[in-house]
Specification:
Layout lengths: L14 E9 L2 E10 L5 E5 H8 L5 H10 L5 E3 H7 L2 E5 L4 E5 L8 E4 L18 E8 L2 E6 L2 E6 L3 E10 L2 E10 L6 E12 L4 E8 L3 E2 L2 E2 L3 E8 L15 E5 L3 E7 L2 E8 L2 E6 L6 E11 L4 E10 L9 E14 L2 E4 L4 E9 L5 E8 L4
Parallel strand pairs: 1-6, 7-21
Antiparallel strand pairs: 1-2, 2-3, 3-4, 5-6, 8-11, 9-10, 11-12, 12-13, 13-14, 14-17, 15-16, 17-24, 18-21, 19-20, 19-22, 22-23, 24-25, 24-26, 26-27
Helix pairs in contact: 1-2
């Protein structure tokens, strides 16, 4: 009698289940996770993971995750650990908690000077809108002398502003008025303005006043001016890296103090934040960040920041180019010289510690 014994090897296939993915104690979404027969998390769907982590890790590291995907689009949690992202499977809650170190994190820029500071009179609303402003000052003085009391009316003064949005350009015109002058009305400036907001650059055709760039003075003139103006779009950043990075571990109320004065107070979620555009005084500034969590726990960070507007951040440009004819006044009438004025100024931050400056001024008085 012969017995044939068959051994059937039965392998338990790994199981894919949908888990909530946790980062910074917050559910950021769901992804399929591969569990072993011993109920241990082994791998995760790479496509879903990369999409979920895109806002949290820097772009270079996100590209590296793409290379870790296997033929079935999964990424093993061991490979994820080698990249620097550790994981913990929370079986009872059906969650996979990921810990991302700070050097992999995408820092959230949080500009503190978010208030829009419009330079000039330009409008930022509907096409062909406009406004006309005027103000009049009528004053008098009174004084007394022995046996005499004198009241005297002062000359009336006025200021007029006309702004008209012409779709691409904005017309800006200002004038002033002073009673009893030979020519009481004085035209101040008239120009067409266009702001390239994302580039933080202003184009002006007409009257302009360049002021002083670096150590190069110039004259009021009429012509063409192209000038960097960071106040046009403050969220894009400004001249200096006036910033400090704070890693928030819990949902908290954040208070930011600069030189002991409260600058802003707002609620933040967990994660690293780059607090940008802090209002600074020249020289050394003390920045204090206070975090108060939902249970009253308090953390305080202090950092010293140095500010000098002549030192640009690395890769930052600052410039002003203008060409035109200088203007001047005779009896409140605005006139123009025939000589051409050219003024060119450019700054570039080679590094956070070194800035190069180029100036050129061309004007002949002969």
């Amino acid at each position: 009698m012969h017995f044939i014994i068959l051994f059937l090897a039965v392998s338990a296939d790994a199981e894919w289940i949908i888990l909530n993915i946790i980062v910074d104690d917050v559910v950021i979404g769901e992804a399929p996770v591969n569990l072993s027969p011993t109920n241990k998390a082994e791998s995760i769907n790479g496509t879903a993971l990369i999409k979920l982590l895109e806002p949290f890790i820097i772009e270079e590291k996100n590209k590296r995750l793409n290379k870790l995907q296997q033929t079935d689009e999964s990424i093993s949690l061991e490979d994820l650990e080698r990249v620097g992202i550790s994981s913990q499977y929370l079986e009872n809650d059906l969650q996979l908690s990921l810990t991302i170190p700070l050097d992999l994190r995408a820092i959230k820029d949080f500009p503190l000077s978010v208030k829009r500071a419009k330079a000039g009179l330009s409008l930022y609303n509907k096409d062909y809108s406009g406004y006309f402003n005027y103000s009049v000052l009528a004053g008098y003085t009174s004084h007394s002398k022995p046996a005499e009391f004198i009241n005297k009316d002062e000359p009336k003064e006025g200021l007029f502003e006309l702004v008209q949005n012409l779709n691409y350009f904005t017309l800006e015109s200002t004038a002033s008025y002073k009673e009893y002058e030979v020519k009481p009305f004085q035209r101040v400036d008239t120009s067409l303005v266009h702001d390239f907001e994302y580039a933080q650059t202003r184009l002006k055709v007409g009257d302009f006043f360049p002021g002083v760039q670096s150590f190069q003075p110039s004259l009021a003139a009429a012509g063409l001016q192209i000038q960097k103006q960071y106040s046009i779009y403050p969220e894009r950043g400004s001249l200096n890296k006036r910033a400090t990075i704070i890693n928030v571990r819990k949902s908290s109320l954040m208070e930011v103090y600069v030189n002991g004065i409260l600058n802003t107070r707002f609620r933040v979620m967990p994660g690293p934040y780059n607090l940008k555009e802090l209002p600074m005084l020249y020289g050394r500034n003390k920045v204090t960040v206070v975090l108060i969590d939902d249970f009253g726990g308090r953390e305080e960070y202090q950092v010293d920041l140095f500010f000098d507007d002549q030192i640009l951040a690395e890769g930052v440009h600052n410039y002003a180019y203008q060409i035109g004819v200088p203007s001047y006044y005779v009896l409140n009438e605005k006139l123009y010289y025939s000589k051409v004025l050219g003024s060119f100024f450019h700054q570039y931050g080679i590094s956070d510690q070194m800035t190069v400056v180029g100036n050129y001024l061309s004007y002949s008085t002969s």
